[in-house]
Amino acid sequence: MKCHICKGKGSIELKHHNLKICEECFLIFFKKKVEKTIKKLKLFERDERLLLALSGGKDSMGLWHILSELNYNVDGLHIDMGFGELSVKTKEKIEELSKILNKKLYIINLKEEIGYDLKELSKFTKRVPCSLCGLVKRYFMNEIALKENYSAIITGHNLDDEATTLLKNVLRWELAYLGRQTPLLEKMDGFVKKVKPYIFCYEKETLLYAIISKIPYSKDSCPYSLNSKNKNLKMAFHILEHTSPGIKLNFMKLFLKNRDFFVPFRERELKDLVKRCIYCGYPTDREICALCTILERSKNEISTGK
Ligand code: AMP
Ligand code: ZN
C-alpha cells in the first residue's frame, strides 16, 4: 500500500476519505483536519482562554495534544467520579500529559464537592449513574469555566459519539434535542460556550492519533458504559459504515447544514423553562434545578448526620 501523500509506504486506510496514508502523513493530515474544523465552524480563536474537559481517554487527551501543538491556549479539567483504583490510574495519566504539555490542570473530586461519589449518589437518588454523570459533568464544567474566566468549554466528543446521538434523536424525532445538538453551543445567560472540535473525526482516527503520537491515555472505559443502550446503535452504525464508507460523516454534515430547521423547537422548549434555578441559574421549570435539588438534599443529610 502506497501513501497517497508522500508516495512512501502507507499503512493506514481511511475508507471514508478514500485515502491510504503513512503514519507521519496521517499526523499532519489529522491536525489540519481539526484546525480546519475549528476555523470553518468558527469554534474559537487563538486569543481565547479555553478549558478542555478531560476524561483521560484517547479523545480528550489526543485533543489536548493537538490544540497545544496548534498553539491554542487550553487548560484541562477532570472530574473524578470516584471509581477507586481506576480513577487513580486515570488521574496519573492526565497529570502526566499536563506536565508534558506544560498546561494547567484542574481536578474536581465529586465526593469532596458533594459528599458522594457517583455510585453512592446513584444509590442515594435511585437514578441511573449515566444520567447523573452527565448532569454532574455539565454542572462542574460550567462552574469552573465561569469561576476561572474561560471563554469556552471543549469536549472530546468524536463523530462516532455525535452521529450515534443524532441517530438516536432522529429515531425518536426528539425535535428539541435535535435543535440543541451542535458542535458550537453559543454562550447564554449563565452558560459558557461549548464546542466539539472532533465532530468530524472518526473514532478510528482519534485512536490512531493518540497511539502514533504516543500520548499517555487511559484505556479503561467507564465501569457503566457496558450497560449503555447507545452501544447497540453504535454497532448498527458501524455496519452501515462498513457497507457505505463515509455515511456517518455525511449524516452529520447534512444535518448541520439543515440544523436551523430544528432550532425553533429548542427555543420553544427554552421559553417553557422561564424560571432559573435559585442556586445556579440553570433553566428549569421549578425553583431549583435537578442537580441543585440533589446537592441540597445531600448537604442536608450530611449536616443532619444521616
Ligand atoms: P463521554 O460522555 O464519556 O463519551 O465523554 C465525552 C467527553 O466528555 C469527553 O471527551 C470529555 O471531553 C468529557 N468528559 C468525560 N468524562 C469526563 C470527566 N470525568 N471529567 C471531565 N470531562 C469528561
Ligand atoms: Zn441549579
Task: Write up this protein.
There is one protein chain. This protein has 306 residues and is of the alpha/beta class. It has a single domain, classed as Rossmann fold (3-Layer(aba) Sandwich). The chain contains 13 helices and ten strands. It has helices at 23-40, 58-69, 85-101, 110-114, 118-125, 129-147, 159-171, 175-180, 203-212, 230-243, 247-257, 263-272, 290-303, and strands at 12-14, 19-21, 50-53, 74-80, 105-109, 152-154, 184-185, 193-195, 275-276, 283-284. The strands form three sheets. The protein has a six-stranded mixed beta sheet with strand order 5-4-3-6-8-7, sandwiched between helices. Strands 1-2 form a two-stranded antiparallel sheet. It has a two-stranded antiparallel ribbon with strand order 9-10. Strand 7 and strand 8 (193-195) form a beta hairpin. Helix 7 (159-171) crosses helix 10. The longest helix is centred in the middle third of the chain and has 19 residues, at 129-147. The protein is globular. It binds adenosine monophosphate and zinc ion. Zinc ion (ZN) is lined by residues 277, 279-280, 282, 288-289, 291-292.
Tell me briefly what this model is.
The protein contains 13 helices and ten strands. It is of the alpha/beta class and 306 residues long. Residues 53-55, 59-60, 77-79, 81, 137, 155-157, 161 line the site of adenosine monophosphate.
